[in-house]
Design goal:
Layout (H helix, E strand, L loop, with lengths): L4 H4 L3 H14 L18 E5 L14 E5 H5 L6 H19 L6 H6 L9 E5 L2 E6 L4 E8 L1 E2 L6 E8 L3 E3 L12 H9 L8 E6 L2 E6 L1 H9 L4 E7 L4 H12 L9 H22 L11 H7 L7 H14 L10 E2 L9 E2 H12 L20 H21 L12 H6 L8 H9 L2 H22 L15 H15 L20 H10 L15 H4 L3
Bound molecules: zinc ion (ZN).
Zinc ion binds next to β2.
Length: 533
């Protein structure tokens, strides 16, 4: 590969001979991608496995054969690292093609993992076990440690991959591209500092924490992982502990939308338990949210929170929600206009009342399409879709993104920032969205007041909206969008220059002027005028 004196010294015939030799040693496979090489059809390269700059030798023991394409597009100069990353990318791609979230589950499946049940016994407070199904009959013993505060019993054992499973209940998260860094780290020979956590589920060993580290090591060829094994843990409590660790306690970087999803699972588990406790069939939903709250009173965890968060999750993650692809769930990055945190604080929290627990049965009026929770979900998705259609689709460009956008405008470096893009960015700023969402609430209430219908002002989206109301909402959003201030580039360093408090924009909307007296609207916002088509 250019820098090899050894390879440069070979004649064309000798080079071809070495190619053939490596091809045979590698079982006709490419060192990087692991797929077959057809020497007649595929251009190939011989390359150093360990780069010379890292102390690799310039001789046959350090050569490998790869597709020329794979070698050109490799993700690391070290071929072992490049191979690990390439094979992981393939596993991720295969999972995504099946519309699954790539996780440790897929990595284990691709590496002969998750096949066997664990054989063990508890003898005098020692864990006695063997991995006989792998051909190893050694009987091993591990101390069982009791944590007096929690009552949890754990043992530390090394487990072959065949006996490891990914715990999708406690840890529904997928893996992300940052694993490349972990692969490099472990390849350098640096040890894993935090041990993976697992629990016994019947005879299965389920890893519920440390999946990124596990994946990185498996991709580098590790065949067994050291885990702290919880022997008789309560799943609900562990979900709660793990959720709290990631949210309130900040032990793990969970993003908020994942917390929602976990609560969703907890809610589903509670429903099942309620049915079981009352001898009800799985498809019987003749009980209410209030019944659930009563039944699980005093229990660890808060069922009210589960119910509300489950609803928020159903709105946010619904495949029909067109706004979803504009929401930044990870909390970082600058491609998308709307952070999950903003979405939750503005739209979700305003329209899904955290205090409301329904006393109608879960399936109340479901057959008529008038179930309050279903209506609430569907109509909130419809609102999200109007926002996406009128403000974002074909207007906002993820490529242009949000990074330093007002600075670029103020500095005149804004050629690729269209008026529509700038308007979308500004309208979805948290302190601005928080205020215009209130006008939507007002126009819904006005509508029902004028038609003379009774409505529940705490749970507006739980009754069916007539078509005319949807037309009004869409007109309001269009008129809001077309206000000149969103496109005004002279305001980039002033009004839009920094983050303002909510009141700043509430004053601006109510009076036309910001609290410091800058005129931003020709007149105060009036919903009656703003719903005119
Ligand atoms: Zn290849």
């Amino acid at each position: 590969m250019g820098n090899s004196k050894y390879l440069d010294s070979l004649s064309a015939e000798e080079y071809a001979g070495l190619t053939k030799k490596l091809w045979t040693i590698q079982n006709h496979k490419c060192f990087i991608c692991g797929e077959d090489i057809d020497l007649d059809l595929n251009p190939t390269n011989i390359d150093h496995i360990k780069p010379l700059v890292n102390g690799g030798k310039d001789d046959e023991t350090n050569f490998a054969l790869a597709h020329e394409n794979c070698n050109k597009s490799k993700q690391d100069a070290d071929l072992e690292v490049a191979r690990a990353i390439a094979r992981l990318s393939k596993i991720i791609k295969d999972a995504e093609e099946k519309h699954e979230t790539p996780s440790l589950k897929h990595v284990l499946a691709a590496n002969d993992g998750s096949l066997l049940d664990f054989s063990y016994k508890n003898e005098n407070e020692k864990l006695v076990y063997a991995f006989s199904k792998t051909g190893d009959d050694t009987v091993r013993t591990a101390d069982i440690f009791l944590d007096k505060l929690s009552g949890e019993k754990t043992a530390f054992i090394q487990v072959p991959l065949q006996y490891l499973y990914h715990d999708e209940i406690i840890n529904p998260r997928g893996i992300n591209s940052s694993i490349g860094l972990l692969i490099k780290e472990f390849h350098k020979g640096n040890p894993q500092l935090h041990i993976s956590l697992a629990r016994l589920d019947g005879d299965r060993i389920m890893i519920f924490d440390g999946q990124h580290k596990a994946v990185a090591q498996i991709m580098l060829g590790t065949k067994a992982l050291l885990v702290r094994l919880f022997l008789n843990t309560d799943v609900d409590r562990m979900i709660e502990t793990n959720t709290t660790a990631g949210s309130k306690l900040k032990q793990i970087a969970f993003d908020k939308s994942i917390v929602r999803q976990l609560h969703d699972t907890l809610y589903a588990e509670r429903i099942k338990k309620y049915q079981l406790d009352h001898n009800l069939a799985e498809d019987c939903f003749s009980f209410s949210e209030a019944n659930l709250v009563d039944h699980f009173k005093g229990e660890r965890g808060n069922i009210r929170t589960y119910i509300i968060n489950s609803q928020k999750n159903l709105v946010t993650k619904n495949a029909d929600n067109k706004l979803q692809s504009y929401i930044n769930f990870e909390g970082r990055g600058s491609e998308l206009p709307l952070s999950y945190s903003t979405f939750e604080k503005t739209l979700l929290s305003r329209f899904i009342n955290a205090k409301t627990i329904l006393s109608t049965s879960l399936d109340y009026r479901a057959d008529e399409g008038l179930n309050p929770r279903v209506l609430e979900k569907e109509q909130l998705i419809q609102l999200c879709n109007i926002l996406a259609e009128e403000l974002l689709i074909g207007r906002y460009s993820a490529e242009v993104g949000t990074y330093r956008i007002e600075n670029k405008v103020a500095e005149g470096k804004d050629k690729d920032i269209t008026d529509d893009h700038l308007a979308a960015y500004r309208i979805f700023k948290e302190e601005i969205m928080y205020n215009w969402i209130q006008y939507i609430e007002l126009l819904i209430k006005n509508f029902f007041s004028l038609t003379g219908e009774l409505y529940d002002d705490q749970n507006l989206f739980q009754i069916k909206f007539p078509d005319q109301l949807w037309t009004n909402i869409r007109s309001f959003i269009r008129n809001l969008r077309d206000l000149p201030l969103w496109k005004d580039r002279t305001m980039a360093s002033t009004v839009f220059g920094g983050k303002q408090v909510y009141e700043y924009w509430s004053t601006a909307f109510r009076t036309g002027k910001t609290p410091d007296g800058t005129l931003v609207l020709s007149k105060p916002i009036n919903v009656v005028e703003m719903i005119k088509e």
